[in-house]
Amino acid sequence: MKIKSISVFCGARSGNDRIFEESAYNLGKILAERDIRLVYGGGGLGLMGAVATGALDHGGEVTGIIPEILVDREMAHTGVKDMRIVKDMSVRKEQLIDEADAIILLPGGAGTMEEFFQVFVAGQIGIYQKPIAFVNTAGYYDSLFELLDTFIYHDFLEERFIELVRKVDRIEDVIEELEHFKPVKGRTREDIEKGHSHR
């Protein structure tokens, strides 16, 4: 699939290792060089700020979507011209998803996970499916994929839905992973009823 816009979900903080911010900046640079529009949460701090600055510094197109409360707290990126101010976090999340052909996740916290799981669950149900890639900087998301394996082992997640998600160690490979995405059949009542047990 040809990707024209990507939503990046990531932390408003920088984390405790410089590699997180460097990786975010490099992702913005890669998107700009490939003429892919960056859509993100509009922040000027942390990894949000780094990915936007990376794109802007290299002539990329950037759309920020930020709730009023964060603008009031002076958290918006001042260099982003296409900054859309929305009512609340829920509207922001919906627009971040709607605007994107694909999703990339950099390290982040609870808000980043909330955004991921909304897209992931929608893909399972078949409401919409968008390719999702985690940039696994310094092994940050290894434990999340272990959790997903636990879901599968105990039959709370069908194994085929892991195909909706990619874990990428090298940021240079993330676009290719997204472009090779293939849709997966959504969940049906029959899938739930048949289930299986490991006991």
Summarize the structure.
The protein has about 200 residues and is of the alpha/beta class. Helix content is about 40%, strand content about 15%. It has one domain: Rossmann fold, CATH 3.40.50.450.
What does this molecule look like?
One of its GO terms (molecular function) is hydrolase activity, hydrolyzing N-glycosyl compounds. Keywords: Cytokinin biosynthesis, Hydrolase. One of its GO terms (cellular component) is cytosol. InterPro entries: LOG, LOG_fam. Its EC number is 3.2.2.n1. This protein is α/β, with parallel strands linked by helices and 199 residues long. It has a single domain, classed as Rossmann fold (3-Layer(aba) Sandwich). 42% of the residues lie in helices and 16% in strands. It has a seven-stranded parallel β-sheet, sandwiched between helices. Helix 2 (46-57) links the parallel strand 2 and strand 3. Helix 1 runs parallel beside helix 2 (46-57). The radius of gyration is 17 Å and the shape is globular. The chain starts with a strand and ends in a 5-residue tail after the last helix. The mean pLDDT is 92.
